[in-house]
Amino acid sequence: MSCEKIKLYYFNYVTDDLSTLTPSSEDTNFPVSNLKTPLRTKVFRSTSSSCNIVIDTATTEQISDLLVLPSSIDNQFGFTGDLTIEANATNSWSSPAFSTTLTPNRENNFGIATFDTAQSYRFWRVSASSGASYAELADVFLGKAFTPGKNVDFNWTYSEKDISKITSNRYGQKYIDKITTLKEESLSIKFLTKDELEDFYSFANFVGKNKPFYIVLDNGESFSPNREFFAGKFYLRSDITYTNVAYNYYNLNMRVEECT
Fold first, then answer.
1. Ranges of each domain in the chain
2. What are phi and psi of 127, to 5 degrees?
3. Distance between CA atoms of 123 and 34, rounded to whole angstroms?
4. Which residues are CB-contacts of 107 (< 8 A; sequence separation ≥ 6)?
5. Which of 93, 124, 179, 218 has a Cα at 20 to 30 A from 4?
């Protein structure tokens, strides 16, 4: 185990406007275009128990990670076993140049595949299967991780906010509409140099408060049960604040809330 820096994933070739997604089959009520939205309640479903989706990134791009999350309605992955991930220079799959698998962490509802080396291909294929009459994918990230110049400082916080709707009658009896929980994290990074700050600012400027991104807080599993435990898909809850604490050094604080 090693103490690795926080990983942020924000430029997603699945949702990029230039990329096209082509499924092997598609339920018209749950089209593959749902994967282009940030909402994990809008899922893609095939019309058979196994399916694949070809992702054409339009140009050859360097890819190092694929992440997958389940629907936020039931927090259950809509496939069984592993995902198969393949890549090729052309849209031909008899003998792809690259192939690997992703085993999702079903207890923590997050799946990560980090390749040993970044792969540069235009076409990617993700294959899934289930024991049901369809296979389902709710949220897929394909791209690279951004690693800030410094790691998250101590005293970061993590919570899961229960957003169930609770009402009470005149006798104090509770009526509960059980919904889900929202992960929230408060993080700070200290003593970034001006160059490291510029790199981080590029990330912050891209996502703003309107684009989701993914956090893997402890990829090396040095202080958590597993790397998926504190991981998630988030929005910024408020603007990032930057503090100049010394010549050429900056601290920043950020608060994030889960994207469902």
1. 11-143, 157-258
2. -120, 140
3. 20
4. none
5. 124
Work out the pLDDT band at 1, boundaries 50, 70, 90: very low
Cα–Cα dist 94/82, whole Å: 20
| pLDDT for residue 2 | 55
Q: What Å distances lie between residue 75 and 64, 71, 193, 240, CA to CA?
A: 25, 5, 40, 29
Which amino acid, one-letter code, is at 54?
Answer: V
Computed from CA positions of residues 242, 245, 246, 249, in that sequence, does the dihedral angle turn out positive or negative?
A: negative
| CA of residue 248 relative to chain centroid, distance | 32
CATH T-level fold of 11-143? Jelly Rolls (2.60.120)
Specify the pLDDT at position 163: 86
| Cα dist from 6 to 93, 103, 144, 229, whole Å | 34, 21, 13, 13
What residues have CB less than 8 Å from 94, skipping those under 6 apart? none
* Measured distance between the N- and C-terminal CA atoms of the chain, rounded to whole angstroms: 31
